[in-house]
Amino acid sequence: MASKLMQLQSKAKQASQFVGKHGCEYYKQLMEKNKQYVVEPPTIEKCQELSKQLLYTRLASIPGRYEAFWKELDGVKQIWRNKKELKVEDAGIAALFGLELYAWFCVGEIVGRGFTLTGYYV
Q1: Contact assessment for residue 46 and residue 39, using Cβ atoms and an 8 Å cutoff
Q2: Name one GO cellular component term (predicted).
Q3: Prior bond to 63 cis, omega within 30?
Q4: In the chain, what are the domain boundaries?
Q5: How far apart are alpha carbons 71 and 78 in whole angstroms?
Q6: CA angle, corner 61, sides to 56 and 65, nearest 5?
Q7: Of the candidates 37, 51, 106, 120, which lies 20 to 30 Å from 18 by C-alpha distance?
């Protein structure tokens, strides 16, 4: 256990030294590459204004999203009404989509528990 701790400390020291050497250079490159997204002057007041703009822009987009949701739901209802005309390919795609959703749910549960499988005795 002590050897693992020493290894971890050694890795952390190496990472810290790497960041110390190259962190400033990386920051400069990152800012230069993305300077079109920086608002001048970069003040706290400007940041607060932008965060409010983001919040209210997102709130303003809710009605459009609401309408799009109901259009999608109407499309699904239409497909369900005409399920006798449904092709095997479409049913397969829907089944794979459902399986993927279920798999993400299961993976999310496992990750949420800290990558432990409860209920199994190994």
Answers
A1: yes
A2: mitochondrial membrane
A3: no
A4: 1-34, 42-81, 84-115
A5: 10
A6: 150
A7: 37
Task: Please give the Cα distance from 10 to 99 (Å, whole number).
Answer: 43
- Residue 14 is which amino acid? Q
Tell me the pTM.
Answer: 0.46
The per-residue DSSP string of the chain comes to -HHHHHHHHHHHHHHHHHHHHHHHHHHHHHHHHTGGGPPSS--HHHHHHHHHHHHHHHHHTHHHHHHHHHHHHHHHHHHHHTGGG--HHHHHHHHHHHHHHHHHHHHHHHHHTTS--TT---
In terms of Cβ atoms closer than 10 Å to its own Cβ (0-12, 13-18, 19+), residue 106 is: exposed
Two tokens, residue 86: 């449904």
**Residue 110 contacts residue 116 (beta carbons within 8 Å):** yes
How remote is the C-alpha of 29 from its chain's centroid?
A: 25
* Beta-carbon contacts of residue 31 (< 8 Å; ≥ 6 apart): 38
